[in-house]
Every structure is written in structure tokens, then in C-alpha cells.
Design goal:
Layout (H helix, E strand, L loop, with lengths): L17 H44 L4 H12 L13
Length: about 90
């Protein structure tokens, strides 16, 4: 799915290690670099938001159990419970 582009954009300057920029350009081409970085920042902001939710929950209710973490992982990423992997393999 191609992400929708936000209305207004703004040019910024970001310093990054040269080898990282080289790898990004080899993956995205010169014209795809901004879109790639935009999606990476969106992803990081979402992860930061999830971390804030977990911190708030843990402050109120205590640490999450392994079962709660695995349930959240499955809900978010559709992954199987890592503890069950291979146990029921036929």
C-alpha cells in the first residue's frame, strides 16, 4: 500500500553518516529518499507512542506479563507466540 502524501511539506537539513546515506540512495534512488525517511520517521513516532502507552500502563498497573506482551505482539504484528513456535509442529 502506498502511503498518502501529506498536504504541505517543508524542507529540512539532516546530518547523517555518509555510509548510511549511500545505502539509502542505493535502495531508494535519489527521488525516493524523502519518502523513505518520512515513512521511517512515521514508524518511529508510532513506536514512541506505543512506548508511552506501555509506560503509562505499567505506572498504573505494574509490569506487563510475558503473556500480555505476546498477545500485544500478535495483535500488532500477527506473529505467532515465540514460546509456542515449534512445539506443535507436525
Amino acid at each position: 500500500m502506498k502511503p498518502t502524501r501529506a498536504g504541505k511539506t517543508e524542507n529540512i537539513s539532516v546530518s547523517m553518516p555518509a555510509d548510511l546515506i549511500s545505502e539509502l540512495r542505493s535502495r531508494t534512488g535519489r527521488r525516493g529518499l524523502s519518502g523513505y525517511i518520512t515513512e521511517a520517521v512515521r514508524h518511529q513516532l508510532a513506536m514512541d507512542g506505543l512506548a508511552e502507552i506501555v509506560t503509562s500502563h505499567e505506572e498504573e498497573y505494574g509490569a506487563l506479563s510475558e503473556q500480555e506482551i505476546e498477545a500485544a505482539r500478535r495483535e500488532l504484528f500477527g506473529e505467532e507466540d515465540s514460546q509456542d513456535t515449534g512445539r506443535n509442529a507436525v
